[in-house]
Amino acid sequence: MTASLKKLFVKTFGCQMNVYDSGRMVDALAGEGYETTERLDEADLVILNTCHIREKAAEKVYSEIGRIRAVKEARRSDGKQTLIGVAGCVAQAEGEEIVRRAPAVDLVVGPQSYHRLPDILRRAQQGSVVETEFPVEDKFDHLPGVTTGRLRKAGPTAFLTIQEGCDKFCTFCVVPYTRGAEVSRPVEAILAEASALAEAGMREVTLLGQNVNAYHGEDRAGREYGLADLIRALAAIDGLERIRYTTSHPRDMDDALIAAHRDIPELMPYLHLPVQSGSDRILAAMNRRHTRDDYLGLIDRIREARPNIAMSGDFIVGFPGETDADFEDTLRIVREVGYAHAFSFKYSPRPGTPAAGLGAQVPEAVMKARLAALQAVIEDGQRAFNSATVGRSFDVLLEKPGRKPGQLVGRSPYLQSVNVDAPAHLRGEIVGVRITSAGPNSLFGEMTAVRGDDALARMEAVS
Ligand code: SAH
Ligand code: SF4
Ligand code: F3S
């Protein structure tokens, strides 16, 4: 049996949801006799799970296909077949165009059709297949369950998609087009998956959604659950000690969810809550549907509920029409919030989005300078946040071997990487760690006899 297994090579681009989806595809294809490989040259099937969010991300796919085509041709001269598949958001956005531009591609499959992969593969033997309709059936009802053996190998943390798609239509963003309308998975399906994860040894689960705090699922009795209700139910699962969620929209941060940050100890004190810009004019042009003050007021309320919460965000510089004054507003909001971490991007016009058609596109050189200035301010904040943890102790979930022998790397409640001298058998455990030094991107610490006391709870918010 083992000898006849076919090899699958998967490369994942983009966000955590793509990472989750790649795992689900691997599980679905295991049923078709595929096992994964890290070696492209032995792959019978290659899947690129792609991202369309910015031009650079989308263009990467074509250079990647070029590289794979060479391998495909070399294998063909050895009499071996290689199927090339493009999945993910570029597949959804470009569809047929991909096969026209890159005829070596055998199958194109959008994110809502992964449950059809076995059938698509069969059809791809006869010629290229493009499947980018939004099917009426829900893929999650038709995908096989998560294979926990695969997860166990990866460590004690897992992603779990609970909501997909987006109805917000920010004017710069392709996600509503590539992922479709907002859909929440039913409560029982999520709880069952989470229980399986916990039984497989997962200590931490990150709930995923393009707009995860818009979650509104139902249980079998028809009772409505918001994200706060769902987190409460998940926290009751034995073995699940840490819960995180991403990505949230400020408009959907309701009172119940804020209260959950106060009341549920399993919910980690770290929140990714993108604001994109600090300028009201730009926020309006982006269709974010809130102001700078709304956002700052919201953060005040969240910090009142959970004083030690660490904030993270996303920013876009150079949105069409952004002036120096608008950009200054962005720098100010970053300083005011005091982010523990943040991502920042140059605006990239995306086909089909309203902002791409706006005049007043900001010149590349200006965007570049603004990005550098913003990143300097973000890094200052990140460094300050990390240094403030030195001398304090908290719980660290040990996830994987460290760089040096005898070391493990884990995560603090605030999602910082922490290097600790610890024996390998503690991998997967949560241990108390006292932080001894801090670098810009990671911390170093030593194990303490007791679990951490969340000493940061008593720390003033870093500003
Ligand atoms: N759903 C999330 C983010 C999805 S995309 C949210 O609402 O915040 C992740 C990040 O990519 C966004 O937060 C934004 O900062 C960035 N992004 C999205 N479209 C972009 C574009 N056209 N150009 C540059 N950055 C973009
Ligand atoms: Fe894109 Fe806005 Fe939806 Fe986030 S909320 S996925 S940025 S449209
Ligand atoms: Fe990219 Fe699609 Fe995620 S565009 S960021 S892979 S939802």
Helix/strand-derived category reads alpha/beta
CATH architecture of the largest domain: Alpha-Beta Horseshoe
Strand elements, count: 21
- Domain count: 3
Q: Average pLDDT across residues? A: 94
How would you portray this structure in words?
Its main location: cytoplasm. Its EC number is 2.8.4.3. Monomer. One of its GO terms (cellular component) is cytosol. It is found in: Cytoplasm. This protein is an alpha/beta fold and about 475 residues long. It has three domains: about 130 residues, Methylthiotransferase, N-terminal domain (Rossmann fold, 3-Layer(aba) Sandwich); about 250 residues, pyruvate-formate lyase- activating enzyme, CATH 3.80.30.20; about 70 residues, Nucleic acid-binding proteins (OB fold (Dihydrolipoamide Acetyltransferase, E2P), Beta Barrel). Helices cover about 35% and strands about 20% of the residues. The chain contains 15 helices and 21 strands. The chain has a six-stranded parallel sheet with strand order 2-1-3-4-5-6, sandwiched between helices. Strand 1, helix 1 and strand 2 form a beta-alpha-beta unit. The longest helix is centred in the last third of the chain and has 24 residues. It is globular, with a radius of gyration of 23 Å. The relative contact order is 0.08. The C terminus is likely disordered.
